[in-house]
Amino acid sequence: MIKQKITFILVLITTAISQAQENSKVLIDTTNYIDYYKEVNRAETLFFMKNETDMALTLYDKVFQAYDFVYVTDLMKAAQIAKFSHKPYKKYLKQGFRFGLTYEHLKNYPLFKNDFLKLKADKSLEEAYRVNRKIYLEKIDFDYLHWLYEIFLKDQVDKTKKNYGEIVEENLNFLKKKIEKKGFPGEWILGVYDPTIFKEHGIPQWDLKSSKKNYKTLDTRHDIGEDEVALFQEKSFPLLVHHPCSYQKMKTILWEEMKKGHIHPRDMGTIYDQIFTYLDNPYTSFHSLQHCNVPKKHIYLHLNIFTNYQEKYENLKKTDSLRKSFYIVPMEVDERKNEFQTKYGFVLFSRYWEPYGLEE
Q1: Spatial distance between the Cα atoms of 164 and 176, rounded to a whole number of angstroms
Q2: What is the pLDDT of residues 83-93, one digit of tens each?
Q3: Which residues, including other chains, have CB under 8 Å from residue 285's CB and lie 6 or more apart?
């Protein structure tokens, strides 16, 4: 009996040492964001595919501590995993406040529903929000954000014009020049989309809802999402998805920006898949697709809710290979994440045009 207990204890110690050694192998190169994407993907795989909660959270912690900027969508995945697994999770919310998370966002997460009032009353969270919100606001380029809002609204007005194809070409060139000068207009530089961010900054007339009033044709439009909250800067993407060849034309600079952490790989995937949306839509003939250099055999990333994927897996190995090259988890990991959404109330697909669930 004693020998069995000793053997059991030795097994536990060996397992713990093995896990510690596995985590210690992670040497993160913070000169770019490639390791960030790889290790966050590995953390997702550890939890959702292998049920290795402690290893996943340890890896998340290591990544989040190593980088100056962290995507809030990743912090919220870690927070949900910790909450679901009865582990400390408030540290992820506190760090999230530094990158745009608000209490309003938490209302969209079922796992925090029962604790929402307690979280609102938590003094340590309140202080973390106060301190980190100030840091967050100081880092936003508000002039750049104002420019983005204006070109976004103009694009919404121009959509019905006969020469819209020429306009989106011009807008894409404007955006490219802006990116070359200031970087991609994502969360790192402009923060997450917040309908009252300019009001908080002291310029309420620049908020989207107020700016919209300058365009009479938008008075009756209720589909531009001016009142919505998001955990990414969603007003950057219409300029990209409205041009059928945006990925091909912007590929080099977008990859450079992704390596810097300025645009998330899954957002890149949405833009990549968008070309196939146009190819399958007979109403987009006003665009010229002949210079898009689209591969004859379509290999999708399955990251665009509006793309008409011909089959669930036209070629799974090639799809996963392409995903790997974009630093995106394999399809089976996304499917498993979708199961956690359905069964347990996780929210795991919250970036631009991401499918909230993969089709059966």
Answers
A1: 18
A2: 999 999 999 99
A3: none
